Amino acid sequence: MRITDLLRAEGISLHASPADKNQAIDLLVTLQEKAGNLADPDQYKADILAREAQSTTAIGSGIAVPHAKSAAVKRPGLAAITVPGGVEYDAPDGQPATLLFMIAAPKDGGDTHLEILSRMMVMLMEEDFCRKLLAAKDVEEFLAVVDAQETAKYPDEQPAAQEVPAEEAPKGYSILAVTACPTGIAHTYMAAEALEKKGQELGIPVKVETQGSGGAKNVLTREEIAGAEAIVIAADKDVDLARFDGKPLLRVPVSEGIRAPEELIRKAPQAPVYHHDGGVVVEAAGEGVGRQLYKQLMNGVSHMLPFVIGGGILIALAFLLDDPSIDYANFGTNTPLAAWFKNIGNAAFNVMLPILAGYIAMAVADRPGLMVGFVGGSLAVSGATFAAPAGDSASVSGFLGALIAGFVAGYLMLGLRKLCDRLPRALEGIKPVLIYPVAGLLLIGLFMCFINPFVGLLNNALYSGLAAMNEGSKVLLGFVVAAMMAIDMGGPFNKAAYLFGTSTLAAANIAAGGSDVMAAVMIGGMVPPIAIALATTFFKNRFTPEERKSGPVNYIMGLCFITEGAIPFAASDPLRVLPSCIVGSGVAGALSMIFGCASPAPHGGLFVFPVMHNVLGYLVSLVAGSLVGMVLLAALKKKRS
């Protein structure tokens, strides 16, 4: 079987012009269907999108290879399009994709087609081959280019192997590598080819084991490992590292194997020596404790953000659609339409912190940690204590409590699993369905009831401090509460400032437009995302391609008063992002007080501007604070090469 047996004329479209990534995928799926490769196009597309959600299948250098193993595939096949104008595909190098191949692999198919498909991935590493494909005038020429390249690189008849003189026999491999991606189809083989090819150019013998969907190929032997100078693991899934004990080991994402093979080959001998600790996978260089905690935190944040964004925008719409003159105390739910939006938004907000805690715990302890973390986050929201199991408002630990609950739940479950390893094998089946959930739930309940009063005390202390400041300078108060909104972006400082602002609404004169403190609090939460969005727009060279792409979304999040949109940027570079946002927010809050701005609503951002007092002054304050944050961020962040 050859590649041209999998790539048919019906599955090729030249000079296409999809508007975006989704349209490109739709076109490729349609071509797969025309080629007769699919039993269920909708299911296959869903599987393709699920694979894209794990990580982009764009390789860089204008190439993208969307792929999936799917039960909807009735026979293996390829589809291809050329896009001379390029289409944005989330490539690691930020370049639009001009050459796209889609791989359809049966869920339970054999391995032969995977070997053929891996040839396609290897061939795409040749720049001249890609140029010829893009220059093809018709489908027949496109197929001829593929066939010629395959014939040159993989002749049908290999000449008989000649015996290599002993003095010319290779003495072993200096660098060994393992490549693996989640589906084991495309990136796995492209990274392997890039590493081996670069090794040949550098005169450094490199052997790569590929852990594809058809199993491990080119497996590294004990003798090869013993004689190797260093190991490179380019993988986006777990790899057994025990066999590399005592060797310098460099661990990176599989995309790095494709993007920077020379750098990996040269850096590997200087990597820290890997030590395998009694069957527990010990992370290699670049995956230390700090990195692990960061990845676990980001797992929780990434799952929480949709609840924040969706819920926040619907709540903001509720305030926009409501009439505060009906009943100010119930502003946001006075009309049926407003109440509908607010209740739906609140449903998302109510599970936001449990989701954060649950997915942090899951990142630590896998599935056994999810339920325990979720319950821990729920207990943080309720403020449960031993004296008040149903919850105590004075003991609500909020965001900080949920954060603690997530990590504690995860590591509690890891410890519980180690203890359960000592139980008889006959009890193996009841661990996940009885022992883990019951014991985990009991332990996290005891822990949260213990810490909630202390974390709640911290939140209350912050609130009391703000109340005392209200008696002094209004301008200073505006600066402080707004700056607090940017300190931890949803943490105790942020929540204390927000709760203080909402408490002033009850005493606000509705005829005067609401509370000046609430206005300062809200503007402080709007500035960080907008300042970051401005910086990614006007100072692109300070950010990675991924950050530049996601930055503009923060315009919308900032205007909707969703401060959490800045969290990914703050988490990746807190020493530069946080000071910039804090100062920018503080300036905006102080100006809001100077201009006498006031808000009658505790949330809503842009959507409550029509009901605010001195909205023009508020806009000036928002712009000024955002520009200050942008300039500081641009000054603090270094240019990227």
Fold blueprint:
Blueprint lengths: L2 H4 E7 L7 H14 L6 H14 L3 E3 L2 E2 L2 E4 L6 E11 L9 E10 L5 H12 L3 H9 L3 H15 L21 E6 L6 H16 L3 E7 L2 E3 L4 H6 L2 E6 L13 E4 L1 H6 L1 H7 L21 H33 L14 H15 L1 H14 L1 H16 L15 H23 L10 H39 L4 H14 L4 H12 L12 H23 L6 H6 L2 H7 L7 H6 L1 H21 L20 H22 L5
Parallel strand pairs: 1-5, 3-6, 4-6, 7-8, 7-10, 10-11
Antiparallel strand pairs: 2-3, 5-6, 8-9
Write a concise synopsis of the structure shown.
The protein is built from 24 helices and 11 strands. The chain is of the alpha/beta class and 641 residues long. The strands form 2 sheets. Strands 1, 2, 3, 4, 5 and 6 form a 6-stranded mixed beta sheet that branches. It has a 5-stranded mixed beta sheet with strand order 9-8-7-10-11.
Overall description:
The protein has 641 residues and is an alpha/beta fold. Helix 16 crosses helix 18 (492-503) and helix 17 (474-487) packs antiparallel against helix 23 (574-594). Strands 1, 2, 3, 4, 5 and 6 form a six-stranded mixed sheet that branches. The protein has a five-stranded mixed sheet with strand order 9-8-7-10-11. It is built from 24 helices and eleven strands. The chain is 55% helix and 10% strand. The two termini are 44 Å apart.
